[in-house]
Design brief:
Number of helices: 4
Shape: globular
Structural class: mainly alpha
Distance between the termini: 34 Å
């Protein structure tokens, strides 16, 4: 478990550089950090290549909606 957490910390900005590619804590940390960065007005920092590899790139708008509904409201 510690290895997954270390991997998430190390690669959360560039998850496509990480070995392995499953939806795990790295994915969650990357998405959360990217969504928060967007809300703060920073450039889009999603690693689309990584998200496409997992087949979840189409979920970004859904997650944006959840953030807007649950966090910002």
């Amino acid at each position: 478990y510690a290895e997954r957490i270390t991997r998430a910390i190390r690669y959360h900005h560039t998850p496509s550089d990480a070995p392995e590619g499953d939806f795990d804590c790295l994915t969650s940390v990357h998405m959360a950090e990217s969504l928060i960065s967007e809300e703060d007005g920073n450039d889009n920092s999603f690693d689309i290549k990584y998200l496409e590899g997992l087949g979840i790139e189409d979920k970004i708008d859904k997650w944006r909606g959840i953030i807007a509904e649950k966090v910002i409201a």
